[in-house]
Specification:
By secondary structure, the protein is of the alpha/beta class. The longest helix is centred in the N-terminal third of the chain and has 22 residues. Helices cover 51% and strands 8% of the residues. The strands form two sheets. Strands 3-4-2-1-5-6-7-8 form an eight-stranded mixed β-sheet, with helices on both faces. Strands 11-10-9-12-13-14 form a six-stranded parallel β-sheet, sandwiched between helices. Among the domains are: 185 residues, 3-Layer(aba) Sandwich (Rossmann fold), CATH 3.40.50; 177 residues, Rossmann fold (3-Layer(aba) Sandwich), CATH 3.40.50.2000; 128 residues, no CATH class. It starts with a strand and ends with a helix.
Length: 736
């Protein structure tokens, strides 16, 4: 079970349900909790009845607590100024949304929620780092709708695609235009609520009371009637050509496009505009219609859309006549597709009425393959495949979503006050008394993370490694984060005690079976480097064994090379760090045969590595680690006098360097990219100078030519003081 925050572009109670509401209910039906955020508005409001009504509803609901609308689904309606993302208005919108999320968090106790957004301007409202993972589901090209700030939306969407952990699209054209921006991009196509619309076949649905009195076949369209989507002129010509056919339209007129003019339609006796109807009543209308229509234009918007109503029509068992938009090209076996031409549409409709369209069983089978539940399950499997789903069980181990709630909860405030007093006692030299008081406080509140963290810090400072490490494991069990451990790992200045204590601490944590692999793995890496600095050969041998175990565990993960988890939880990043640590340990021992074997294993692993398949920031961050590791692999190829292997390593380095120049990485900070690219260029240039012909072993470069690249292995900054160490290793390697 996970918590999801769905940032929608449609209000929950909109009568025409779209992907937003259906995704929320599907997630909830699969056992997850969903906080649905009503539309924040992508465009500015218009002075018309529709927008004014929406504004009034939002004012009534804006300050309410989350309301439960479905089992597992709660809705909030933040008070925002629609379409405002910059300046003072944008700031007020962010504050308002933040306040709504805080209220929701107080009610629901959200735990490490995933953000599932449909809004391309998400980053203008929310800090993405607050969420466990971010999914952008792009269902249409919003910027192609009338009145939209096209340039602003284009830039915002590109940035969001690059920043999100995963990108899902519903049409091939959307995927082509956006997919390259994200390593976790997948196209799933559109779907429908097959069970709801399948009532047409299962039940004897009565004819709606507002069904028009008519003779002959009834052609139906359900959806928003907007001139930017529907081919209005073609439809009017078709209606005039077929006065004996009845045309029934259900949906709002001009909701998104005020220029929509249906005055000509209203003058036709065979056209009936019924307006909006409740979602629950739609199957009854379809049950008594003969053919369902999708009379779309061919324009920038429709070329990128995949209409949900197509599969709703199929699920209802209706014959479908539709414009042949790109997304429907592969559905020609279950629908009659044609150009947006009145004569073509008339001919296709006549075929459908004559029973010459696709068979009913085939249409129903296709509809059953395209359901919200099936698609949502596939999407969640995809997120799990990429390492983006939270570990189960989630609560109460996972921290609360909103930091304010954690900081200002009564236990936390009490703990902070107590720790301030204990710190004062320590300053006054009353450490023993301070420690006793801390123990008493923990007897009263044994699960308080702040108190446990302070006790762990004290035990480690006293050199009590066993008790300190046990407390860290306990903090992980209670909290799911263990911030004290994170500081120990990634802030060297926070490491406890002398060098001996550090080696002992990280050796204990490295062997832990209670900590997740990304913690115990990095503990092993740090243990290795501390052992190298201490020249502890016994510890190094133990490190090599543990690193080999971790590599075996990581390589057994089928999703290893597609991990999109950022920061230090990315399994691909851990793999490369472990490889380098093992190589460095074997260099320090030294163990030539084992080092050569490890170098071969590393090369095989990197050949499977694709920087476009993992988190973007991680791919950049890990580049230096990979280049240093491959340098060692090249040195071992030189030692083995294997020119072909040496060339293969250099080619692999060139592949990664070229990949690093792709546009995908342009969104990252220039400083980070500049260092990584400079390092890759420097290492590659040095190794290119060392290549030799397999036919002429005597031309193999002298040992001194390898000092510079090996120096970069020891010190990525390339400082010359490590040159002697690099030379010593190479001389020893030659002797062995």
């Amino acid at each position: 079970m996970a918590d999801f925050v769905v940032l929608a572009t449609a209000d929950w109670d909109h009568p025409l349900w779209t992907n937003k509401q259906h995704v929320a209910t599907s997630l909830a039906d699969l056992g997850h909790r969903v906080l649905y955020i009503d539309s924040l508005g992508v465009r500015g409001p218009r002075v018309d009845r529709s927008d004014l009504g929406r504004i009034l509803r939002r004012l009534r609901r804006g300050l309410r607590l989350p309301r439960k609308v479905h089992p597992g689904v709660w809705v909030v309606s933040p008070l925002v100024l629609p379409g405002k993302v910059g300046g003072l208005a944008g700031l007020l919108n962010r504050w308002s949304l933040g306040f709504s999320l805080l209220l929701a968090d107080l009610v629901l106790d959200l735990r490490r929620p995933l953000l599932w957004t449909f809004n391309p301007q998400t980053q203008s409202y929310l800090c993405l780092d607050r969420f466990h993972a971010v999914v952008y589901l792009c269902v249409d090209r919003i910027q192609a709708q009338p009145g939209m700030p096209v340039g602003l939306l284009e830039a915002a969407e590109r940035n969001l695609c690059a920043a999100a952990n995963a990108l899902f699209t519903t049409s091939p054209q959307l995927h082509v235009g956006l997919g390259y921006l994200n390593a976790g991009s997948h196209n799933f196509g559109n779907v429908a609520d097959a069970d709801h619309f399948g009532q047409v076949l299962a039940d004897d649905l009565p004819r709606p009371c507002d069904w028009p009195v008519c003779q002959g076949p009834v052609l139906i369209f359900i959806g928003a009637i907007d001139a930017y989507k529907l081919d209005m002129k073609m439809l009017e010509l078709l209606m005039k050509r077929t006065p004996h056919w009845t045309y029934l339209f259900i949906g709002p007129v001009g909701e998104a496009d005020p220029s929509t003019d249906v005055s000509g339609w209203r003058r036709l006796a065979n056209v009936h505009l019924l307006g909006t109807r409740e979602y629950s009543t739609l199957p009854a209308y379809l049950a008594h219609a003969d053919v369902a229509l999708l009379p779309l234009q061919l324009n920038d918007y429709t070329r990128h859309m995949y209409p949900m109503k197509f599969f709703e029509y199929l699920a209802a068992g209706r014959q479908v006549v539709s414009t042949a938009i790109p997304a429907l090209q592969d559905q020609s076996d279950v629908a009659l597709l044609c150009p947006p031409d009145a004569l073509e549409f008339e001919s296709a409709i006549r075929r459908a009425l004559a029973g010459e369209g696709p068979a009913l069983d085939k249409r129903l089978r296709r509809a059953r393959l395209h359901t919200y539940r099936a698609r949502t399950e596939a999407m969640l499997d995809c997120l799990d495949h990429h390492g983006l789903m939270p570990d189960s069980p989630l609560a109460p181990q996972a921290p609360p979503f909103h930091r304010i709630r954690r900081w200002f909860s009564r236990p936390q405030l009490f703990a902070q006050l107590c720790l301030s007093g204990l710190g004062l006692l320590d300053i006054l030299g009353c450490s023993v008394l301070s420690h006793c008081i801390l123990g008493s406080l923990l007897e009263r509140d044994p699960s308080n993370i702040l108190l446990l963290s302070d006790l762990a810090r004290r035990r480690l400072a006293l050199g009590d490694i066993s008790r300190g490490s046990a407390l860290i494991e306990r903090i992980w069990h209670e909290d799911g984060v263990a911030e004290i451990l994170h500081k120990l790992l990634f802030d060297r200045h926070a490491a406890a005690g002398c060098r001996v204590d550090q080696i002992e601490l990280f050796s204990v944590l490295a062997s832990s079976r209670n900590l997740p692999l990304h913690y115990s793995g990095y503990c092993t890496v740090f243990w290795t480097y501390f052992a190298i600095d201490a020249n502890d050969s016994v510890a190094l041998s133990r490190c090599v064994d543990r690193l080999s175990e971790i590599l075996a565990a990581l390589e057994s993960d089928p999703d290893l090379y597609q991990c999109l988890k950022p920061n230090h939880e990315n399994r691909a990043e851990l793999l490369m760090s472990v490889h380098l640590a093992r190589l460095r340990a074997l260099m320090a021992l030294p163990a030539t045969q084992a080092l050569n074997h490890a170098a071969i294993e590393l090369f095989a692993s990197i050949c499977r590595y694709d920087p476009f398949a993992i988190d973007c920031a991680t791919a950049v961050r890990v580049m230096t680690t990979i280049m240093r590791s491959l340098t060692i692999a090249a040195v071992m190829a030189w030692h083995a006098e294997d020119a072909s292997r040496f060339d293969a390593v250099v080619m692999e380095m060139e592949r990664l360097r070229q990949a690093f120049l792709a546009k995908r990485f342009d969104q990252l900070s220039n400083e980070t990219k500049a260092f990584q690219r400079h390092f890759a260029d420097a290492v590659l240039a040095l190794l290119l100078e060392c290549q030799w012909s397999p036919e002429h072993v005597e031309l193999r470069p002298e040992l001194e030519r390898l000092v510079a690249p090996v120096n970069l292995v020891y010190d990525p900054d390339g400082r010359s003081e490590r040159s002697e160490q690099a030379m010593s290793f190479l001389q020893l390697l030659r002797q062995l």
